[in-house]
């Protein structure tokens, strides 16, 4: 299964964006799908995860602002990002156990 990210863009601080991760196959076949981000020049960071039974987990840096969700009918995993901060600027990736890394989608938050 391959995962493709989309939905990135540029937004002002305090704004919102919704990212989407589209799977080439059934997301129910993947135990856990996660969103990661990598700011320029920094290491990749795990920020949110979801399982087929909708168990979710978040990094402290995004808890209360970001929401991960899954749509089995559409084979997509979304990431709703609210109250964006400048420090949220990064390339965002989705990845699941057994999947390859995609190109990611750029999110830029300006002050």
Describe the structure.
The strands form two sheets. This protein has a six-stranded mixed β-sheet with strand order 2-10-9-4-5-6, with no helix packed on it. A four-stranded antiparallel β-sheet has the order 1-3-8-7, with no helix packed on it. The chain has strands at residues 3-6, 9-12, 17-23, 33-38, 45-50, 56-58, 66-71, 76-81, 90-96, 105-110. It is built from no helices and ten strands. It has 111 residues and is mainly beta.
Give the key terms.
mainly beta; globular; six-stranded mixed beta sheet; 0% helix; 111 residues; four-stranded antiparallel beta sheet; 50% strand
In short:
This protein is an all-beta fold.
Helix content: under 10%
Helix/strand order: EEEEEEEEEE
Main sheet properties: 6 strands, mixed
- Share in β-strands: over 45%
What distance separates the N and C termini?
37 Å
DSSP helical segment count: 0
- Large-scale geometry: globular
> Largest beta sheet: what is the strand line-up?
2-10-9-4-5-6
Q: Write down the overall mean pLDDT.
A: 96
Tally of extended strands? Answer: 10
SS class: mainly beta
Please state the CA-atom Rg, rounded to the nearest Å: 13 Å
Indicate the low-confidence ranges by residue numbers. none
